[in-house]
Design a protein that fits this description.
This protein is mainly alpha-helical. It has one domain. Helices cover 88% and strands 0% of the residues. It contains 4 helices and no strands. α1 runs antiparallel to α2 and α2 runs antiparallel to α4. It is elongated and about 55 Å long. Keywords: Membrane, Transmembrane, Transmembrane helix.
Length: 119
């Protein structure tokens, strides 16, 4: 291998690892969302809930999915920092976006609940 190939090889490995982490975090968040939505919407229907209640539970499932997605990315970021490795800029941006969305997302079911109570 030439010197140029040796210098780019770690970058390629880091980019590949970052893509793998982002993919796994998105998959974990999606699985958590789907599983939570199926359970809570099934229970809502089984116990005779209305459409407004279903909307609140659906929004709560979105919150759970966002929290799992964000938690996965933040945990891996912390582990990388402890290990002394530097994540790529793309993964840092996605971690920040996921964290902000997870931080703001609990407003969704609260707003839906307030709207349901007001009508």
């Amino acid at each position: 291998m030439s010197d140029a190939e040796l210098e780019t090889a770690p970058e390629d490995l880091r980019a590949s690892a970052d893509r793998r982490v982002l993919r796994r975090a998105a998959l974990a968040g999606t699985i958590a969302f789907v599983a939570t939505a199926v359970v809570v919407l099934g229970l809502n229907a089984a116990f005779g809930g209305d459409g407004q209640g279903a909307l609140v539970w659906f929004m709560a499932a979105i919150v759970v999915g966002l929290l799992v997605w964000s938690g996965w990315l933040v945990l891996v970021l912390l582990l990388d920092v402890i290990a002394g490795t530097v994540p790529g800029r793309r993964r840092l941006v996605w971690t920040a976006v996921a964290f902000v969305l997870a931080f703001v997302s609990p407003i969704l079911p609260a707003a839906a609940l307030q709207a349901a109570a007001g009508s």
